[in-house]
Design a protein that fits this description.
The protein has 13 helices and 15 strands. It has about 450 residues and is α+β, with helices and mostly antiparallel strands.
Length: about 450
């Protein structure tokens, strides 16, 4: 997919493509339950808190992203909107399948998020006698072929943005999702690099400065105060002025808008510096044992992630907090411990985390959230030993084999098949997902059953 290099820059004949899943969580729900296709549907966040994904039909009803569910529950019922809890196992599996399909369509692929990926693709060569416009090198037909293949194999709708650079590809993808000026169906595929210069500048002028990838609130405000209200004005802003405000990062962004690639594709993800697992509780915790169970569960999950990443942790932090709406009784605290020998062993990490949970618990301070952060991460292939904390090679090999066996069983039979007793079984604090759909792509018991009757 990318060889041994960690990044790849687009050449003059290569195009950068951004493929993005439309309403990804809602679309995944439609894959496992075709009965929701064409109907308004929303997906809720952890503990069924807020709306985090909407189908196109729900968007058309004016339902906003991020609305607390309890505030709009009656409205959704009145409008006949289907409500689903977040099914992370389903979304992660569908994301992996999507990226596998996309790898077949591009020369190099950078997985940017759960539903987005950048790719590199060669543009067709211009034949003799063709003019200076790039219409003959248009990749729109290729983009529609890709969309049809993804829809046929996975049932997922995607939008495709094509341009000379990553920033422009991001902009082209946003343009592909928006309806044309006169209304109607979105383009779904938009090749900005094949547009005549006048049309390309019109697209930049129609893109608000806040919608440019890499522009945050502070920089957008700085631009607005100087009359830079859209992407075209930022492209044409004097480079020296932008360099004084943003340094080389701002200059790279401007060069990307001018069609000069400065941000290569990251084909090998950089090693993580920290790994965190945290959750809000379905009900506040005011019991020491429940906090221990929660911290043990999060530590176990963080250790699994660490082994999957091929890393070890040299330090561990546990943090807790109560509801920020408690006013004067608000409580937040954290504690950190360094490990004598970096480890990815769940038992070692639990031994470090549980005493911290004990120390952080305060009676009469109901906790709304807790989390575990693994820090000082190092490569799992190398291990720096400690003179005062001996770890014989035989013991290390046995523990590594045990962890690998537990991970393999949980992957094969489902998460939680083998777990640590400290995590508890039926705890009232666990995440609330009362409207969870089935995990038909990862759990055998959730596969739909079809009955057929033979006539005659």
């Amino acid at each position: 997919m990318g060889g041994a290099t960690s990044g790849r820059q687009a050449s003059s004949r290569e195009a950068v493509v951004l493929i993005d899943g439309n309403n990804f969580y809602a679309s995944c729900e439609a894959v496992v339950d075709p009965a929701v296709i064409g109907r308004p549907l929303v997906v809720l966040s952890n503990n069924d808190g807020c709306i985090v994904s909407r189908s196109a039909e729900a968007r058309a009803l004016g339902i906003r992203m991020g609305q607390p569910y309890f505030q709009v529950q009656r409205q959704l019922e009145r409008l006949g909107v289907i409500v689903r809890s977040s099914n992370y196992a389903l979304y992660a599996d569908m994301s992996q399948r999507l990226m596998t399909v996309l790898e077949e369509w591009v020369e190099a692929l950078e997985i940017y998020s759960i539903d987005e990926a950048f790719g590199l693709l060669q543009r067709p060569r211009r034949t003799r006698g063709e003019g200076s416009d790039a219409s003959s090198r248009d990749l729109t037909a290729w983009g529609h072929d890709l969309r049809r293949d993804v829809r046929r194999r996975l049932g997922l709708p995607v939008a495709v943005g094509i341009a000379p650079t990553k920033v422009l590809a991001k902009l082209a993808n946003k343009w592909a999702k928006s309806a044309p000026a006169g209304g109607g169906t979105p383009l779904a595929v938009f090749d900005l690099g094949a547009c005549p210069s006048g049309q390309a500048e019109a697209v930049l002028a129609a893109t608000a400065i806040e919608d440019v990838w890499g522009i945050g609130k502070k920089l957008a405000r700085w631009c607005r105060l100087r009359g830079v209200a859209h992407a075209l004005a930022l492209r044409d802003l004097p480079t020296g002025e932008l360099r004084q405000r943003c340094g080389v990062v701002g200059v790279r962004l401007q060069q990307e808008l001018r069609g000069h690639g400065c941000l290569p594709l990251e084909l090998v993800p950089p090693a993580k510096r920290e790994t965190c697992v945290s959750r809000s509780f379905s009900t506040p915790i005011d019991n020491r044992e429940h906090l221990r169970e929660a911290v043990a569960t999060y530590t176990s999950r963080a250790a699994e992630k660490l082994r999957r990443q091929g890393q070890r942790a040299g330090a561990l932090t546990v943090f807790v907090r109560s509801s920020p709406f408690n006013g004067t009784s608000f409580y937040a605290n954290a504690a950190t411990v360094r490990l004598p020998v970096a480890s990815d062993d769940t038992a070692v990490l639990l031994a470090a985390a549980l005493p911290l949970a004990q120390a952080l618990f305060k009676p009469h301070k109901p906790l709304q959230k807790a989390g575990v952060v693994l820090q000082e991460l190092c490569d799992g292939a190398t291990l720096q030993h400690h003179l005062l904390a001996p770890l014989p090679p035989e013991q290390q090999q046995r523990r590594s084999a045990l962890m690998a066996t537990i991970d393999r069983l949980n992957r094969h039979y489902g998460s939680g098949t083998v777990q640590w007793a400290a995590c508890g079984l039926q705890s009232p604090w666990r995440m609330r997902r009362s409207r969870l759909s089935r995990a038909a792509t990862t759990r055998l018991a959730d596969l739909p059953v079809v009955w057929a009757r033979l006539e005659g």
